[in-house]
Amino acid sequence: TDEHLDLDDGRWEDIHVITGALKLFFRELPEPLVPFSHFDKFIAAIKMQEPARRGRCIRDLVYSLPPANHDTMMFLFRHLCRVIEYKEENRMSVQSVAIVFGPTLLRPASEEGNMAMHMVFQNQVVEHILNQYSYIFPD
Questions:
Q1: CATH number for 46
Q2: Predicted confidence band at 113 (pLDDT cuts at 50, 70, 90)?
Q3: Structural domain boundaries, residue 55
Q4: Where is the Rho-GAP domain (predicted)?
């Protein structure tokens, strides 16, 4: 919205408020950051056994996203990589970030099927993109 927020206001000092708002923003989008049309493609890619082929496929899928989704993903994952750099202080490892953001950024159009298996693969996709950030987003 056009509401002006004063981030120096004391209510924003709790990092959980800001991180919760960020996660809520992505969860409330009508379509996730990874569009429904790409969900099965990303899941198939992360299941590939050959690491080099899996990496190229996921990179190509990221580049096939609509420009707004691609650019938002690049910005968000750059930030999440910075969060992970401080994992000793914040206890947010690559795996932790993937568990928190996987189901939010990448979800199927319908909740049918094995949600537990989906969640494993959703987390693996996010973890892969975080681990391969500089390969996927070489800028």
A1: 1.10.555.10
A2: low
A3: 10-136
A4: 1-137
pTM (2 decimals)?
0.88
Tokens of residue 46, six digits = 């992360």
Number of structural domains the chain divides into: 1
The three-point CA angle 99-101-102 to 5° equals 70
Gap between the Cα atoms of 126 and 36, Å rounded = 15
Instruction: Report d(CA 124, CA 94) in Å as an integer.
Output: 10
Model confidence pLDDT, tens digit, residues 61-97: 999 999 999 999 999 999 999 999 999 999 999 999 9
In sequence order, the 6+-apart residues with CB closer than 8 A to the CB of 20 are none
Could you tell me if residue 92 is inside a domain? yes
- Would 64 be classed as within a structural domain? yes
The verdict on residue 40 lying in a domain is: yes
Q: Which residues pair with 106 in a beta bridge?
A: 34
